[in-house]
Design a protein that fits this description.
Layout lengths: L1 E4 L4 E9 L5 E10 L6 H19 L3 E5 L7 H20 L3 E5 L1 H9 L6 H12 L8 H15 L10 E5 L2 E5 L4 H16 L9
Parallel strand pairs: 1-4, 4-5
Antiparallel strand pairs: 1-2, 2-3, 6-7
Helix pairs in contact: 1-2, 3-5, 4-5
Length: 203
């Protein structure tokens, strides 16, 4: 799973392996840097080539990119959008699944709070991946959070409705379901207990 924290000056990349039990393992992390003195097309080319090298060398199954959100700095958001487009094209050309998750979704996946600060994200990514120290810089940590977020989406949950994420650093539990999702899970659990037939499984 390759995560991308898009940026024109600094683009974070993070690749993780996630097994069927949701144990996450760091494969590689880094930041692609391009100088503002270069032309925009050359900067985007440098980033595109880095994406291609990572995909060719690591063979991820999917690319998860931080979704662009509103910013006051128009120049910055344009650069982020351009890099996002490059990442999407490179991923699609390689035949990979391409997903976009907001910063809040990635934060919630690894910390349980969509408003967590960068330091909290770094600490939780460290714990999830069983690292000796928090991943730095924050661009790389955000990319790893993106990869973990996408790898964990749609997986199994504990009985209390909180997603149970089993990591290299131990079991980490974060609330990952909405109220509606918890109600649906409870209904499905009741179906299993009573032996009723799920109408979706009728043939």
């Amino acid at each position: 799973m390759l995560g991308v924290d898009p940026g024109l000056t600094r683009c974070g990349l993070g690749c993780v392996d996630i097994d069927p039990r949701r144990r996450a393992r760091l494969v590689r992390m880094g930041v692609v840097r391009t100088p503002p003195s270069q032309s925009p097309e050359q900067r985007l080319l440098t980033i595109a080539e880095a994406f291609e090298d990572w995909i060719a060398g690591l063979a991820p199954t999917a690319v998860s990119i931080e979704r662009v959100f509103a910013q006051d700095n128009l120049r910055s958001v344009i650069g982020v959008a351009q890099v996002t487009g490059v990442a999407m094209v490179v991923g699609a050309r390689a035949g990979l699944e391409v997903a976009l998750h907001t910063p809040s979704e990635a934060k919630a996946a690894v910390t349980g709070s969509g408003t967590a600060g960068k330091a909290q994200v770094q600490v939780m990514v460290q714990r999830i991946l069983g690292l000796v120290e928090p991943p730095r810089p924050s661009d790389a940590a955000d990319a790893l959070a993106q990869a973990i977020c996408h790898g964990w989406r749609g997986g199994g949950t504990g009985a209390d409705g909180a997603a149970e994420m089993v990591s290299a650093g131990g079991s980490v539990r974060v609330s990952a379901r909405t109220s509606a999702q918890r109600q649906w899970a409870a209904a499905q659990a009741a179906v299993r207990r009573t032996g009723a037939v799920d109408p979706r499984r009728r043939r």
